[in-house]
Hints:
Radius of gyration: 35 Å
Distance between the termini: 38 Å
Shape: elongated
Structural class: alpha+beta
Number of helices: 35
Strand content: 15-25%
Strand order of the largest sheet: 24-36-35-34-25-32-33
Largest sheet: 7 strands, mixed
Amino acid sequence: MAASTRTLFLSCFHGGGAEVSPHLALRPRYPSMPRRPRPAVVGGDAGERRGSGGDLEASKGAAEKAEEEEEKVAVFEVTGMSCAACAGSVEKAVKRLPGIHDAAVDVLGGRAQVLFYPAFVSEEKIREAIEDIGFEAKLINEEVREKNILVCRLHIKGMTCTSCTNTVESALQAFPGVQRASVALATEEAEIRYDRRIVAANELIQAVEETGFEAVLITTGEDRNRIDLKIDGVLNERLIMILESSIQALPGVEDIKVDTELHKITISYKPDQTGPRDLIEVIESATSGDITASIYPQAEGREHRRYGEIKRYRQSFLWSLIFTIPVFLTSMVFMYIPGLKDGLEKKVVNMMSIGELLRWILSTPVQFIIGHKFYSGAYKAVCHGSPNMDVLIALGTNTAYFYSVYSVLRAATSENYMSTDFFETSSMLISFILLGKYLEILAKGKTSEAIAKLMDLAPETATLLIHDHEGNVVGEKEIDSRLIQKNDVIKVVPGGKVASDGFVIWGQSHVNESMITGESRPVAKRKGDTVIGGTVNENGVLHVRATFVGSESALAQIVRLVESAQMAKAPVQKFADQISRVFVPLVIVLSLLTWLVWFLAGRFHGYPYSWIPSSMDSFQLALQFGISVMVIACPCALGLATPTAVMVATGVGASKGILIKGGQALESAHKVDCIVFDKTGTLTIGKPIVVNTRLLRNMVLREFYDCVAAAEDNSEHPLAKAIVEHAKKLHSEENHIWPEAKDFISVPGHGVKAKINDKVVIVGNKSFMLSSGIDIPMEALEILVEEEEKAQTGIIVAMDQEVVGIVSVSDPIKPNAHEVISYLKSMNVESIMVTGDNWGTANAIGREVGIEKIIAEAKPEQKAEKVKELQLSGKIVAMVGDGINDSPALVSADVGLAIGAGTDVAIEAADIVLMKSNLEDVVTAIDLSRKTFFRIRMNYVWALGYNVIGIPIAAGVLFPSSRFRLPPWVAGAAMAASSVSVVCWSLLLRYYRSPKKFGS
């Protein structure tokens, strides 16, 4: 298998042949995405360039020479690539950068060679582009330095808008040793790439906290396999030393950190050499039972953090209500009840009344204790020169509160001054904002339910089988599923969940894999078959040997992929980011202008301001309008418009088996107007079978198939597998050994060639035979035409330069293929089929599924060229394929959709992974993208609509005609409602249903 896979990869990258050059060849394999930078014109001005033709030619020659001198070659070591799709993904990412002349990637050597222009792009930018798609990249001469580059994740509390995320990003980017920082508002997380020799993770936390936000470390990036163990028992220096030395002695242990306050030990280890169960056993045995260890409760998990934040906002809101309700009643209700009004208006000191004193006392805790977070956030935001929502709230409430204090104190020191206070404005404003944040966090929490549901698929416990030295089962033990180690044997009973990825070593059953792969029917499992963690065993008992545990499992990869997608920003979000950078300062200026206009209007009582009542204090009127403008214009909703919709959409997609790799893929998918389909494994089931054999020479059928199967056994092509499987049926023994194949050559899309039993056997299509110098007899051509008319593929077999037979293979078309193509047409999406198969079969398949435009007998690189041609014609192209031979086209397309990803989701080069392998999911992916961006557009309408309509009303445009004023606390409620409405509008995507024709 390894040899055949290696051969396939070689053929994908080098076009076949027995020999492969160890050097990278800088020749285009996939079309370059960016424009090539213009060469600088050397010498002369515009007037000189309009001179003689000779001067122009000399100038052009000098420019070309300068361009050649500016070109630079950089070689990167790329780790994590495992297939041609990975290499294609790297090449695509690099070629999208400006200033890239060419790029070539060698998947076997793990190298990427880039020819670029330093004036337009640097080695660091190229390396970052490679790492952005999930691979590790090192500049060859900087290997030592790159070993110290880590990526850590932080949870950040208290962010309210894109201004907050920009503040945190700027602070982190400016920190020495930080190469890149990305902050996501919807997930409230930051991902930082840093040099651990210059900066430590705790310093990054401190940098975030200096901006006014609280940071919690999720992972330092130092390792992927880390476990937190809870220690029960009395710890002293001697026991700590014993624990550290005992654990460090275990093979595979890389790092140990002991937290005596939390009674926690954090251990980094290599899963191939040790595991959590071994660590716990060593801890307990080394301390003679004085210390016991267990998995540390994940109190800092995402859900626990969210519940903690919800609890804090709920408590703050309830406390604010206790003080705010009496303030509201004394200022707006009791003043209209005769008995209570007289009591509240009774003077205490000079003109200061009991009601004013009560409101002052009750509103003070709300302003300074409950509202303390707004003060601290505003102070730190101003210190960093990036004002946010906290600044607007602090300015608005403080203006109302301190003017009220001034008014009340002046009344207390005067015998004739009638005070007017706005204590209810400040306290009610804070209360409504806290209510809005509470509702917003409740709603935002539902956007990430998809991840929680995925994580809940894993069972809490597992049954571990204990074997003796001879491999016999001598007992079983129930353990925490997080304690499973590599090579453990787990017992799975009927109705139970598979606790870990692995393969069956005993038993047979049917396993429901719909929660992972989307396959609705239970899949039969027997000895040697693989199983996926989180799936459900239907009937029989299975013994499963664990192969991938912890972060390496398929479920963990899917969770990481969804989390990464939710962290990524969609390009459309740049619109909100650009507005937020200037929005808060603009609002402050606007509110000051509003106050100034109304204040001056009151001073000029009379025409044209005769509509202002003479009894109204112009300062108070202007103050109310200014505060209302300041509060209603908070940009919270604008920052939530895109990320919440993207989070919900990626979660919904994951629940339907559609893994969307970030906002970029989601945004591109809604623009698609042309889809290029591969045939084998995409439009067809991908499991062809041999339906007929026609021999053109007298020979034994079994001997014929022995030679053909020996050659095709080295190929991973579905047609080759079908022939090998058919050949096995001609032998009674289960594991028949084929003759040795020498000098094997594979040409993708054409066929294979090998020497079998001293015969040169060539198996492939008509063009492969002609290129090999083999004459095809008329009888064979007639058979090929007959098979093609039946939508069957005719494979020619030649031995010693003579055609000896034709094998007919049929690959059934997928159910609903015709309906899918028809539905795409109704969505104004054009469908094209590109296949390496012959024209006859391709046309027959095209007629059956309803595709008119067909390209047959195309090599992998020709598929990519066709995609590029469509793009140059102005179309937004999606490519649907199996992600192996179709990888050049997948990475060249605007959106690559991989069908049949199975469990290997982390290494796919496509932008969208269709795990169910159902063709109708292509329609669902595009439809989901379109509906998501409809939600995003509506979110911007909601967010900007509140401001466009609300700011003029808050500024008092209706007051001259209707005497209508928007009280500041009502403006605050409207601002809170805007954020909640945006999040709720995004949450409606949770109820997304696939198009009725395909949904079930």
